[in-house]
Amino acid sequence: MSQTLSARSLEFAQTLVRMNTVSSNSNLELIDFARDHLAGLGVRSRLTYSADKKKANLFATLGAGKPNGIIVSGHTDTVPWDGQDWTVDPLSAMVQDWPQEGLRADGEVERAEPRLYGRGSADMKSFIAIALANAEHFIESDSPYAVHFAFSYDEEVGCFGVRELIADMKEQLVKPVACIIGEPTNMVPAIAHKGVYRYKCCVRGKEAHSSLTPQSVNAIEMAARVVNKVRDMADGFENSERRYEGFDVPFSTASVGQFHGGIADNVVPRDAEFRYEFRNLPTADAAAMQREVVAYAARAEEAMKRVAPDAGFTFETICEVPSFLSTANEPITKLAQRLSKEQRTTLVAFGTEAGIFKSAGIPTVVCGPGSIMQAHQPDEFVTLAQLARCEQFLQGLSITRDIR
Ligand SMILES: [Zn+2]
Fold first, then answer.
1. Nearest residue to 253 (alpha-carbon basis) of 270, 275, 278
2. Residues 101-113 pLDDT 10s
3. What distance in angstroms lies between residue 353's CA and the mean position of ligand 1's atoms?
4. Which of 140, 231, 249, 362 has its CA 20 to 30 A from that of 262?
């Protein structure tokens, strides 16, 4: 029998969705809410702040004193909704049946499915909310495992916050035995995702009247050569990389997302810039991909410098989110399967903090309510049925005696 979602979990999920924690904003309202709730239960939180102090990670141990702990992790920020076509207020956190009355198929017995709507409902405030709403279960449990709540900032813009959180955890000599990240996987444990490596390339050329091209360095044309290199690499991955079945696209991809340059038709452009990314398979080396681009640019630069010594390329890292690769046999995967009553495991197409936790030596699994199909979309929602499964999962975790 499926359990229904507790009123408090739903209320907490609605409370968090109503807070505007788009990555460009502060997340302190949410962090304060979590900290105050935990403080009311006698649990102290450690906050680690961004440089401008407008954002914070929260780390709290429930069941302190136990020798081993399992991290329950989520990010507090969301993507924005500017320019998206929403039919509901993204901050409304309204619960609505689907299909709505009147839209239900005629004559058929169709059960309406209640959904929670709003930005962050699926990705991934509901998971954090349910963890908080069930905090007493972790505190009062006689399970040998403590649970660490780890709620980060700036995940959506490059997984920046969690690095501070992990560094602080290491400084405090906290050594968790496993980590569960509640990104939306429809409660199916996910054991791998690709990396996301993004860079910006600025090209400096030499300006001239467009009738005097030999005395100039055309920044757009030079940029285009490197763009072409990125494209050739993408073709190379598609044509010859060893496939990793289970991903929507079973090979690494590369893509240029933005290109700017030029001021007039008759001016050889001095400046151009473009941004590109690699999404590497867990079995492929993204750093090597970037080195290949930089080396290619360095060769092109030699000719540029003969015309103008200060011409050339500069590269800037936008984000480097490592890929994640675990196995179905990992104890934390098996525990997640038992708690979610799932035989399956899955691979996901999106980046998460899992690779960062894993590289810190913490076995990790990604498993949370809702679908990535709704994440980042207009009218984002999560079904209350998924949230109920998540609550059952976390309550099961609170009484776990053995993670093997
Ligand atoms: Zn997310």
1. 278
2. 766 665 555 678 9
3. 9
4. 231
Cα 276 to ligand 1 centroid, rounded to whole Å: 21
Q: Output the CA 279–ligand 1 centroid distance in Å.
A: 17
Per-residue pLDDT, averaged over 45-62, amounts to 98
Q: How far is the CA of 109 from the centre of ligand 1 (A)?
A: 35
Q: Separation of 236 CA from ligand 1 center, angstroms?
A: 30
Q: In 40-164, which ranges are E strands?
A: 45-49, 56-62, 68-75, 95-98, 113-117, 145-152
Q: Given this model, what pLDDT does residue 1 score?
A: 41
How far does the centroid of ligand 1 lie from the alpha carbon of residue 14, in Å? 17
What percent of the chain stands above pLDDT 70? 97
184 token code pair: 């939306």
Question: Could you tell me the distance, in angstroms and rounded to a whole number, from the CA of residue 179 to the centre of ligand 1?
Answer: 15
pTM (predicted TM-score)? 0.93
How is residue 97 annotated by DSSP?
A: E
